[in-house]
Specification:
It comes from Streptomyces siamensis. The chain is an alpha/beta fold. It has 11 helices and 12 strands. It has a 7-stranded parallel sheet with strand order 3-2-1-4-5-6-10, with helices on both faces. The structure holds NADP nicotinamide-adenine-dinucleotide phosphate.
């Protein structure tokens, strides 16, 4: 397929682009900086400019994947979805929107599935509305899907890289707010593989959790991060108000979110088989050293 990818320069998008390209697809990167060197064909575009988005979805584009970060403005993001999906209406071409598990909120004792109600924390406050807007296009002949990754690890990047940085700075493992927090985790290469499966095979109107490990104790991740940083010591608790002061309230609250999220639907229905090292092994002995 010739796939228009929004966000191909990002942490996740760059690996998705690589995977799609390696598995025989042609990637066309929509970018705000078309003059920058790219190994893919590029088209200019910006989520703030709906006309640029519609213009990029030409009839030779077989599928569209949005892996960009949201703009922070609900109206802008809604207009971007409308602009990207307008040319796909009535064609059954795929549109994959990347959301995230934070839309599920704190899960408590339960393990959230794709059918669980959303309960977004402030950092992703309007994202469920965007998900609904995407999925509603399935009624208009778009093979629209939503993929919600867990916290991504791999290639030494993403949120776990922060844990390593904090450990290095503090000389000890450090976590925000609560020793009992758990994060749903996924390796970036496994997740990229799931993007390929969803865009290829998932039915219109479906939601998928990109989660290989439902609930990894952040305490274990912090200890792994300290090992990668070459430091030892007891886990330090970073009080929420202090973390909020440094990281901003929405992001600090997100890091303190306790979740258990089920990713088995993609394994059962799309044949997804996560094969990469688990998060603690990757952080302590793999790509974060
Ligand atoms: N990282 C995680 O653990 C995680 C977990 C769950 C969900 N997600 C979701 O996955 C997506 C990608 O995350 P990431 O960690 O890869 O983020 P990232 O590294 O910050 O990459 C963001 C990408 O979005 C593009 N972008 C930003 N604003 C844009 C705009 N106005 N118009 C066009 N493109 C724009 C950026 O392009 P430029 O090169 O032009 O800046 C970049 O390619 C996000 O939706 C995020 O919420 C991430």
């Amino acid at each position: 397929m010739r796939i228009l990818l929004i966000g191909a320069t990002g942490y996740l998008g760059s690996v998705v682009a690589e995977h799609l390209s390696d598995t025989g697809h042609e990637v066309v990167a929509l970018t705000r900086t078309p003059e920058s060197p790219s190994r893919y064909a590029v088209r200019p575009g910006d989520l703030h400019d709906p006309d640029s988005l519609t213009a990029a979805v030409t009839s030779d584009i077989d599928a569209v994947i949005n892996v960009a970060t949201p703009t922070g403005d609900a109206a802008v993001d809604a207009a971007a979805i409308d602009a990207l999906t307008a040319p796909l209406r009535g064609t059954d071409r795929p549109f994959l929107y990347t959301s995230g598990v934070w839309v599920l909120g704190a899960t408590g004792e339960a393990t959230a599935e794709e059918s669980s109600p959303t309960n977004p924390i402030p950092i992703v406050g309007y994202r469920p509305e965007i998900e609904r807007r995407v999925l509603a296009t399935a009624d208009h002949g778009v093979r629209a899907t939503v993929l919600r990754p867990g916290i991504i690890h791999g290639r030494g990047g993403g949120i776990p890289a922060l844990l390593v940085e904090w450990a290095r700075k503090q000389g000890a493992p450090r976590i925000v707010a609560d020793l009992n927090v758990r994060w749903p985790m996924v390796h970036i290469e496994d997740l990229a593989d799931l993007f390929g499966k969803v865009v290829q095979d998932a039915p219109a109107g479906s939601i998928w959790h990109g989660v290989a490990q439902p609930a990894v104790p952040v305490r274990e991740l912090a200890l792994a991060a300290a090992e990668a940083a070459g430091v030892h010591g007891e886990v330090q608790l970073w009080p929420l108000d202090q973390a909020q002061g440094e990281l901003g309230e929405p992001f600090a609250d997100a890091l303190a979110l306790d979740q258990s999220v089920d990713g088995r639907k993609a394994q059962d229905q799309l044949g997804w088989r996560p094969q990469q090292p688990d998060a603690v092994t990757d952080v302590s002995k793999g790509s974060y050293r």
